[in-house]
Design brief:
By secondary structure, the chain is of the alpha/beta class. The chain has two domains: 159 residues, NAD(P)-binding Rossmann-like Domain (Rossmann fold, 3-Layer(aba) Sandwich), CATH 3.40.50; 163 residues, no CATH class. 28% of the residues lie in helices and 25% in strands. It has ten helices and 15 strands. The protein has a seven-stranded parallel β-sheet with strand order 3-2-1-4-5-6-15, with helices on both faces. A six-stranded mixed β-sheet has the order 8-11-12-7-13-14. Helix 2 links the parallel strand 2 and strand 3. Helix 1 crosses helix 9 and helix 4 packs parallel to helix 5. The chain is globular, with a radius of gyration of 20 Å. It comes from Gordonia polyisoprenivorans. Keywords: Kinase, Transferase.
Length: 358
């Protein structure tokens, strides 16, 4: 059965989601929402850079898109700077009977123990009222530190610590608000960016730690532990999102840690550079400019590195693609899932069925 899908936004992730929906044999693109008035009326194929029209024109008319009664919305709009407004949007879609797969807010990847129970009850009630499901995922938080990590633990005899790392050069990552305001790159070292305010790291990536704990049957100490290290620029750097003058923040290492009886058991860790030559003492990818690495201490000791890059060689572009496609390829499973919020622990194996080149 072909599922009718609306794509919600056409930005750095959304444009790849449109291409993915178009390529998927079991999905039909029936609508596209945009926030930019200049994009209204443009064909989805043009907005996705496909070089051909898809016969679906973009609109900013929310009611008109919901009136199409799609089976699902692939929601890839920016949510990092409007978390609770975005959650309200997602609730309204589900309440209207439309299943949703979304790249954010990432806290919804596994919000138990993070969001207020009243908000979780609202999501559950919306699912029951609309008979629809909501799934938030991507690559990180998402596949690189939920399904991948938990699959590896199935090989363990004893687990002492599970550590999920992102090691990446963000110099070609185009998200000015994220890079400047949220991470703080290019800002004075005595300024505190949004990401490093107390509790923000645990809200942003605590869902990863808590979901892994749930998958492993662990009861974690409260609260989660936050650690970070900032590095100043040793010279001027230029990225596609922000200029980084010498002496301002240029690199960031952070950890969100789940402990049991005061011992680190699950660690989400990021090493973020804005130039590949920075911080040579930090871990580096074996292949390319960025990777995800899972290390499991115990018996046996295990490590796996997952790297990706686009056909043009850029890992930040492919990062947007894998985020989009984790959502697109999950649509059918989410449509079939029980109503309400569903996590990676609730879904069956998601594959790229139907996408092999013909």
């Amino acid at each position: 059965m072909t599922l009718r899908v609306v794509e919600w936004s056409t930005g750095t992730v959304g444009r790849h989601a449109i291409a993915g929906i178009d390529a998927h044999p079991d999905l039909e693109l029936v609508g596209v929402w945009v926030s930019d008035p200049a994009k209204v009326g443009k064909d989805a194929g043009e907005l996705a850079g496909l070089g051909r029209d898809l016969g679906v024109l973009a609109t900013d008319d929310r009611a008109a898109l919901l009136a199409l009664a799609p089976d699902a919305i692939v929601h890839t709009a920016m949510t990092d700077d409007r978390i609770f407004e975005a959650i309200d949007d997602l609730i309204s879609f589900v309440e209207a009977g439309v299943n949703v797969v979304s790249s954010g807010p990432v806290v919804l990847q596994f919000p138990l123990g993070i969001l207020d129970q009243k908000l979780l009850d609202r999501i559950a009630a919306a699912g029951a009222a609309g008979g629809a499901s909501l799934h938030v995922n991507g690559i990180d938080p998402g596949f690189a530190n939920d399904v991948l990590a938990l699959s590896m633990t199935s090989l363990s005899q004893r687990i002492d610590e599970v550590r999920c790392l992102e090691i990446a050069d963000y110099s070609t990552y185009y998200q000015p608000v994220v890079m400047r305001d949220i991470f703080g790159f290019g800002q004075p070292m005595d300024a505190t960016p949004l990401l490093l305010l107390p509790g923000v790291l645990a809200m942003g990536w605590g869902s990863v730690v808590r979901q892994l704990a749930a998958g492993l049957g662990l009861a974690l100490d409260e609260p989660l532990i936050e650690r970070h290290e900032r590095v100043a620029a040793d010279r001027d750097y230029s990225t596609v999102s922000v200029e980084i003058p010498e002496g301002t923040m240029a690199a960031l290492h952070f950890e969100v840690v789940g402990q049991v009886a005061g011992v680190d058991r699950i660690v989400l860790e990021h090493y973020t550079r804005t130039h590949p030559e920075q911080c040579p003492q930090w871990p580096s990818p074996v292949d390319g400019d960025g990777c995800y690495r899972i290390t499991i201490s115990g018996e046996p000791q295990m490590s796996v590195e997952f790297a990706h890059h686009g056909e043009n060689g850029d890992h930040n572009v492919s990062g947007m693609i894998v985020t989009a496609m984790r959502l697109v390829n999950s649509v059918a499973a989410v449509v079939d899932a029980r109503p309400g919020l569903v996590t990676a622990l609730d879904l069956p194996l998601i594959t790229g069925a139907g996408l092999v080149s013909r």
